[in-house]
């Protein structure tokens, strides 16, 4: 046995979490890229072989990212110098062509094996990357969630092998191609969520030699890695408040992990010194953004929360009410995931509003029957849609939906403050993203929605509607009212 030490640091779902904060009850600053960079630099200086990898979703979640359409984030990532990165679904938020532009801006390899240009049956991205360290070779393969297909649903040129079985087959194709090479460690960088990582590991054949799955997307915090089918699975939560760390001993002769230790390292000033050069670099973006976005939009009566996207929230209710008012609709299906802050207010600046609500899309209002409306709510409220990865919604005042999980049944639905009648007509509005993916997200094909009655794009900018509503209504408050009830 020839043991080779290797340290792999890993992040996922950083979402533009650039700045350190003082958490309640803490005496140290927590998170932020300056402290994260300081910790990574310290490990690189003290350990023999160090790799830093990112399992998707570097983009979205900050006003700096939104203002520069991700270019600022990639430039900052260049400063951190990850060794390899995989795509997350939010890397596509500014569109497929812009994602390809960002890939060219990056000074680091971005891998994905299961996104294809369908007509030519060619992978769109570099599918894998091999890193040589201290005489060993590490193969990294990128796998993405089917969510990316939702983001680029209108682009008929792009397809993806998105089932877990297909993803496993892609891994098999690549690892089989390197059977004659001396690959010592094989790592899947995935963005498919923890539960899907577990299922994927079950499908991997032992002879393919996959050792690790480093994942993202579900924001899962683990106390220790999960081992499935002899594959070690880890994920590092969300943001920059922590980083995953593997300390491995790789057996070069057997091409396997002889031993390992993993921990989720909290990033605080107690263990890391700020990288002042990176602070200055981030500050150059922040200064421009602050000048533009520090104006006050409104003041709520109190801080409004949005702790989970799967349930009704005070902040979600306020946003849904504002959009329903601005679009003159009976039912507003406001995507919960589009509200990116867990709390907002009481004072709300333009910058906070844009960062909290970064997806500026059009909204279309449809005319549907009561029966169709019931089908939609039965679909979006089903239990499997509330697993942390489904598309959940906030709804406006006058709407009440009651769902019984045990019977998998929509028991009650109200709109306009009265029970929904099957053969009556109602207006329903939602964003372009949810419209494009109506079959999967709403359980009703978009062709059926458009054929059911008059429909109209009622705004090209959700953010404009929300901004004008908040400016015109000071001292707003909201609470959970029982609009969405699960029994």
Explain what you see.
The protein has 487 residues and is of the alpha/beta class. The chain has 2 domains: 3-286, Metallo-dependent phosphatases (Purple Acid Phosphatase, chain A, domain 2); 295-486, 5'-nucleotidase,  domain 2 (Alpha-Beta Complex). 30% of the residues lie in helices and 29% in strands. The protein has 15 helices and 31 strands. The strands form 9 sheets. Strands 6-5-4-1-16-17 form a 6-stranded mixed β-sheet, with helices on one face. Strands 9-10-12-13-15-14 form a 6-stranded mixed β-sheet, covered by helices on one side. Helix 6 crosses helix 7 (194-203) and helix 9 (314-327) crosses helix 15. The chain is globular, with a radius of gyration of 23 Å. 44% of the residues are buried.
Task: Briefly summarize what is shown.
The protein is 30% helix and 29% strand.
Helix-strand layout with pairing:
Elements: E1 3-11, E2 21-22, E3 29-30, H1 33-46, E4 50-55, H2 63-67, H3 71-80, E5 84-86, H4 96-105, E6 110-111, E7 115-117, E8 122-123, E9 128-133, E10 136-144, H5 147-151, E11 158-160, H6 164-177, E12 185-191, H7 194-203, E13 212-215, E14 226-228, E15 231-235, E16 242-251, E17 256-266, H8 276-293, E18 296-299, E19 304-305, H9 314-327, E20 331-332, E21 334-335, E22 343-344, E23 347-349, H10 350-356, E24 363-369, H11 370-380, E25 393-394, E26 400-404, E27 409-415, E28 418-419, E29 425-431, H12 432-436, H13 438-442, H14 446-451, E30 456-459, H15 462-472, E31 484-486
Parallel strand pairs: 1-4, 4-5, 5-6, 10-12, 12-13, 13-15, 20-29, 26-31
Antiparallel strand pairs: 1-16, 2-3, 7-8, 7-11, 9-10, 14-15, 16-17, 18-23, 19-22, 21-25, 24-29, 24-30, 26-27, 27-28
């Amino acid at each position: 046995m020839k043991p080779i030490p290797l340290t792999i640091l890993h992040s996922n779902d950083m979402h533009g979490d650039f700045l350190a904060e003082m958490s309640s009850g803490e005496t140290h600053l927590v998170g932020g890229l300056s402290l994260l960079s300081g910790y990574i630099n310290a490990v690189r200086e003290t350990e023999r072989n160090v790799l830093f990898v990112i399992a998707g979703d570097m983009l979205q979640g900050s006003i700096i990212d939104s203002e520069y359409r991700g270019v600022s984030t990639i430039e900052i990532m260049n400063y951190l110098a990850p060794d390899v990165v995989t795509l997350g679904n939010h890397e596509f938020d500014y569109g497929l062509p812009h994602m390809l532009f960002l890939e060219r801006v990056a000074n680091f390899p971005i891998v994905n094996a299961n996104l294809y240009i369908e007509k030519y049956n060619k992978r769109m991205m570099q599918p894998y990357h091999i890193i040589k360290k201290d005489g060993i070779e590490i193969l990294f393969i990128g796998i993405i969630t089917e969510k990316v297909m939702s983001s680029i649903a209108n682009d008929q040129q792009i397809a993806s092998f998105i089932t877990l079985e297909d993803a496993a087959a892609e891994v098999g194709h690549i690892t089989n191609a390197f059977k004659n090479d001396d690959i010592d460690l094989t790592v899947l960088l995935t963005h498919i969520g923890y539960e899907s990582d577990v299922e994927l590991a079950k499908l991997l054949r032992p002879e393919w030699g996959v050792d690790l799955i480093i994942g993202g997307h579900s924001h899962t915090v683990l106390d220790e890695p999960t081992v499935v089918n002899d594959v070690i699975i880890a994920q590092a939560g969300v943001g920059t408040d922590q980083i995953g760390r593997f300390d491995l001993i790789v057996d070069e002769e057997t091409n396997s992990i002889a031993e390992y230790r993993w921990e989720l390292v909290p990033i605080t000033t107690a263990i890391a010194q700020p990288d002042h050069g990176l602070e200055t670099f981030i500050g150059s973006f922040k200064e421009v953004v602050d000048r533009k976005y520090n104006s006050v939009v409104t003041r709520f009566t109190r801080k409004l929360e949005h702790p989970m996207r799967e349930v009704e929230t005070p902040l979600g209710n306020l946003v849904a009410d504002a959009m329903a008012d601005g679009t003159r609709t009976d039912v507003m299906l406001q995507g919960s995931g589009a509200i990116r802050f867990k709390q907002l207010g009481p004072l709300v600046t333009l910058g906070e509003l844009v960062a909290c609500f970064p997806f500026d899309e059009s909204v279309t209002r449809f005319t549907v029957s009561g029966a169709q409306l019931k089908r939609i709510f039965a679909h979006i409220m089903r239990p499997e849609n509330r697993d942390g990865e489904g598309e959940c919604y906030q709804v406006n005042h006058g709407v009440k939906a009651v769902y019984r999980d045990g019977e998998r049944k929509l028991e009650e639905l109200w709109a306009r403050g009265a029970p929904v009648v099957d053969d009556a007509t109602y207006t329903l509005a939602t964003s372009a993203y949810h419209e494009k993916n109506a079959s999967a997200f709403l359980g009703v094909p978009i062709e059926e929605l458009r054929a059911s009655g008059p429909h109209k794009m009622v705004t090209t900018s959700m953010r404009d509607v929300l901004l004008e509503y908040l400016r015109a209504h000071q001292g707003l408050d909201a609470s959970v009212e029982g609009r969405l009830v699960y029994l």
